[in-house]
Amino acid sequence: MKRVLFALPLLVALIIGGFAIWGLSGGRDPSSIPSVLISQPVPQLALEPIAGVDTPGLTTEDFSKIEGIKLLNVFASWCAPCRAEHPILTRMAQEEGLTLVGINYKDKPEAAAKWLAELGNPYEAIGSDYSGRAGIDLGISGVPETFIIDEDGIIRHRFAGPVVGDGLTRFTEALDEVRK
């Protein structure tokens, strides 16, 4: 009986270790997490602007006022992948005629203002989601996440993770599908 009790912690550790290795192993694409919002209108948003940033806040009505395809980017100044994708999204907005709007997620206004001043502000509107409520309504799993929204304000694609490298290729393919 003592041997069984002695081996029990080792067995539990092996099981936990196995799940950890499985969880960290490659081959899974975080952007493929399904979203119930696909083919649905953007949920109700009424987000105040970021204090210290000269960009309006973000409401659901903004998506029907803005013509063409919109990219809704959920970002934070504390997010390193957000920093990596920022120049790519900026370029896409400038060169491809896309409207970029943002939600600053669980971020201090002064940190967000400094981040945007440093990297540039390509957003037409940015809502401050300090509480994380809008993130819950959008079903995000973390930052960055970017939603492709069609001209009618319908969410057509959700991309979890940074729009860089292979992610940029997958994101561009999804964008091309929405453009058809």
TrEMBL record:
Subcellular location as annotated: Cell envelope
Pfam families: Redoxin (PF08534)
Transmembrane regions listed in the UniProt entry: none
Keywords: Cytochrome c-type biogenesis, Disulfide bond, Redox-active center
An MF annotation (GO) of this entry: disulfide oxidoreductase activity
Record domain Thioredoxin: where: 36-180
Family: Belongs to the thioredoxin family. DsbE subfamily.
Gene Ontology BP, a term: cytochrome complex assembly
Name of the featured protein: Cytochrome c-type biogenesis protein CcmG/DsbE, thiol:disulfide oxidoreductase
NCBIfam families associated with the record: dsbE
Gene3D superfamilies recorded: Glutaredoxin (3.40.30.10)
PROSITE patterns in UniProt: THIOREDOXIN_1, THIOREDOXIN_2
Keyword Transit peptide on entry: no
InterPro entries per the UniProt record, alphabetical: Periplasmic_diS_OxRdtase_DsbE, Redoxin, Thioredoxin-like_sf, Thioredoxin_CS, Thioredoxin_domain, Thioredoxin_ResA/DsbE_sf
GO cellular component: outer membrane-bounded periplasmic space
